[in-house]
Amino acid sequence: MSEPDKIKLLLVDDHVVVRSGLRMLLETRPDMVIVAEAQSGAEAVRLVTQHRPDVVLMDVQMPDMNGIEATRQIKERWPETQVLALTMYEDDQYFFEMLQAGASGYVPKRAAPDELVTAIRTVYGGDVFLYPSLANKLVRDYLERASAGDTPAGSDSESLTPREQEVLIQIAGGLTNQEIALQLGISVKTVDRHRENIMSKLHLHSRIELVKYALRQGLIELDG
């Protein structure tokens, strides 16, 4: 029986101490391997080309090229590579710019080690990781847009079938495809097909857009 593939990680931070701490934390995880380290966004883009990591842990503010531009270039060239922002900045500007650039999650450096590990595994599985305090920014943002009369992109959720609405709520609530399949009593392939139909009908292109849509429509709520 072959050994399962490990999650290939690229660490991107301009501080050596931070990268060393991350390496000490993550290299002990049996399902993870660190394939390279970068100290700037430009170097990160080059190393993704060379090593093709599964997940990039990306700092935001760095010399040469910041994490926002590096994330944008990585997702344009290698959309299958997941980017997880890991940064000390928790203000709205950086948060939304990283999500817009294509990041699948945003974790503050103050997060507990287990939360970071969970975030890596979540984005590796194709899901979005929303750190609670930062997820609340999404809620505030869409409440403000709604009060200003802005309408969500895509078709109305009423165009979805009852089963598609169920799957939409489960995906936006953070469940993996496997968890959704188990909860609804359907196959993972059926979940994938429903997700594709949802994205097509609502004209959405990523999980983070789907989560934003569900939040704005009031289909899910975030605690705290």
What does this structure look like?
It is a single chain. This protein is α/β, with parallel strands linked by helices. It has two domains: 7-130, Response regulator (Rossmann fold, 3-Layer(aba) Sandwich); 151-216, Arc Repressor Mutant, subunit A (Orthogonal Bundle), CATH 1.10.10.10. The protein has helices at 16-26, 41-51, 67-77, 92-101, 113-124, 132-147, 162-172, 177-184, 188-202, 207-216; strands at 7-12, 32-38, 55-58, 82-87, 105-108, 129-130. It has a six-stranded parallel sheet, sandwiched between helices. β5 (105-108), α5 and β6 form a beta-alpha-beta unit. α3 packs parallel to α4. The longest helix is centred in the middle third of the chain and has 16 residues, at 132-147. The chain is globular, with a radius of gyration of 18 Å. The termini are far apart. Residues 151-155 have low confidence and may be disordered.
What does this entry show, briefly?
The chain has 224 residues and is of the alpha/beta class.
